[in-house]
């Protein structure tokens, strides 16, 4: 993962998932898709995306199947007790080793069993360094107090975290989302890769620790839980680097990027007409994000089917270039533009969405680039994904790219049964 970066990342975002990155009240995932296109167009290449979730690996992977979540560089799971790197999620066993001293899961299970108010969570959520329960709010603080007094007798180094007014986790004292982040920052420092800026994002009790790490910016999203707001009022009220956004979830994260001037903060998804757009961004990553947004709108008939729009599209494809469809057939680019014309509006009124993940660019000549990314597309419940490689060139005088060649292959398990439903 760090090989991708040549130096310190300009920005590291460390975000909680449920009700922070993911808005479970937004069935169309609009704010998440806004974040995705912002991240992939401008930040992916040099910056770091870190998720920090209470979920175990099992239900984290489930969430990734349900929601259009980008692939993070690092995944911190089970309330900061498990850290994994990269796409393949290589576990950090050193971190788990660190959590062993003075941790005795058996004693915790034995002692918590004496509290009838504590209802054990599912087996997937019981982890080597995390024991989790449900606990209803009314007298939760008394239960927590009594439990911690009882555990103190055993001289174990544990901490109890209460989140969402429903969940209680018992963890090693050295664990938690804050400690896991501090550990990562120490590792980066040792490699001379400390991010220039870090932004932590959260909504509930187990996120509070993230806001205690020195020198990070923080955003509590507008929909943050009472327990987090109260913690903030009591502990961090005067810290100007922490805001309570006025927008929900991922939109609140975008708001914080702007507020703290942490880099580009206009999501390409918010640009309704790229032709009229005055921000002239010349970057291959931005180019592919922009194209696929246009393409989504074209098929949903949300852009006008004007000659102008169609000419722009045509002129960005090199007619003699080749497109290799994921099922293996080849066609000239010219045919792509014809198909495209025909597909105008075929997804009108449907929940048709496109997002790109893992956009990476390499310059291969003075005027040519290879851009590689996962192109996702969903219509309601169906979801497909192709690893996509595009060869882009530019003419010095023109501030635009030409698409010379496109090659797609299905990502394992995400192929369309009927290949004709996939076009580009
Ligand atoms: C997630 C986990 C759960 C934990 C809660 C609060 O929902 O699945 O086990 O108790 O976060 O940290
Ligand atoms: Mg949350």
TrEMBL record:
Catalyzes the final step of sucrose synthesis. Keywords: Hydrolase, Magnesium. It is an enzyme of class 3 (hydrolase). PANTHER family: SUCROSE-PHOSPHATASE 2-RELATED, SUCROSE-PHOSPHATASE 3A-RELATED. Belongs to the sucrose phosphatase family. Homodimer. Residues 284-411 form the Sucrose-phosphatase C-terminal domain. Its EC number is 3.1.3.24. Pathway: Glycan biosynthesis; sucrose biosynthesis; sucrose from D-fructose 6-phosphate and UDP-alpha-D-glucose: step 2/2. It catalyses: sucrose 6(F)-phosphate + H2O = sucrose + phosphate. This is Sucrose-phosphatase. Its cofactor is Mg(2+). It comes from Hibiscus sabdariffa. Residues 10-260 form the Sucrose phosphatase-like domain. Coiled coil: none annotated. It comes from the Eukaryota.
């Amino acid at each position: 993962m760090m090989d991708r970066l040549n130096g310190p990342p300009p920005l590291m975002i460390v975000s909680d998932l449920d009700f922070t990155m993911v808005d479970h009240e937004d069935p169309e995932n609009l704010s998440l898709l806004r974040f995705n296109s912002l991240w992939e167009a401008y930040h992916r290449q040099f910056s770091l995306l870190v998720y920090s979730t209470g979920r175990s690996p099992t239900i984290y992977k489930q969430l990734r199947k349900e929601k259009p979540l980008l692939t993070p560089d690092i995944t911190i799971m089970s309330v900061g007790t498990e850290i994994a790197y990269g796409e393949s999620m290589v576990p950090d066993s050193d971190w788990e080793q660190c959590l062993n001293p003075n941790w005795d899961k058996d004693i915790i299970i034995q002692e918590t069993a004496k509290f009838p108010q504590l209802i054990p969570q599912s087996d997937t959520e019981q982890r080597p360094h995390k024991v989790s329960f449900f606990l209803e709010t009314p007298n939760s603080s008394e239960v927590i107090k009594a439990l911690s007094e009882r555990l103190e007798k055993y001289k174990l180094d544990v901490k109890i975290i209460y989140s969402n007014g429903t969940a209680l986790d018992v963890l090693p004292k050295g664990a938690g989302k804050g400690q896991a982040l501090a550990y990562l920052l120490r590792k980066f420092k040792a490699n001379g890769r400390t991010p220039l800026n870090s932004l932590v994002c959260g909504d509930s009790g187990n996120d509070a620790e993230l806001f205690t790490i020195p020198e990070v910016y923080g955003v509590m999203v507008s929909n943050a839980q009472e327990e987090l707001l109260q913690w903030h009022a009591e502990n961090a009220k005067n810290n100007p680097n922490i805001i309570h956004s006025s927008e929900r979830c991922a939109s609140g994260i975008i708001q914080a990027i702007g507020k703290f001037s942490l880099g580009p903060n206009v999501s390409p998804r918010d640009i309704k007409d790229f032709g009229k757009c005055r921000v002239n961004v010349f970057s291959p990553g931005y180019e592919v994000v922009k194209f696929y947004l246009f393409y989504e709108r074209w098929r949903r008939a949300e852009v006008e089917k004007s000659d102008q729009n169609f000419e722009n599209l045509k002129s960005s494809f090199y007619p003699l270039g080749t497109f290799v469809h994921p099922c293996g057939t080849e066609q000239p680019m010219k045919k792509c533009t014809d198909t495209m014309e025909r597909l105008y509006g075929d997804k009108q009124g449907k929940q048709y969405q496109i997002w790109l993940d893992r956009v990476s660019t390499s310059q291969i000549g003075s005027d040519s680039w290879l851009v590689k990314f996962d192109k996702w597309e969903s219509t309601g419940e169906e979801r497909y994904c192709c690893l996509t490689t595009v060869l882009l060139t530019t003419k010095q005088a023109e501030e635009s790219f030409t698409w010379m060649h496109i090659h797609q292959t299905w990502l394992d398990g995400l192929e369309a049964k009927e290949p004709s439903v996939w076009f580009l």
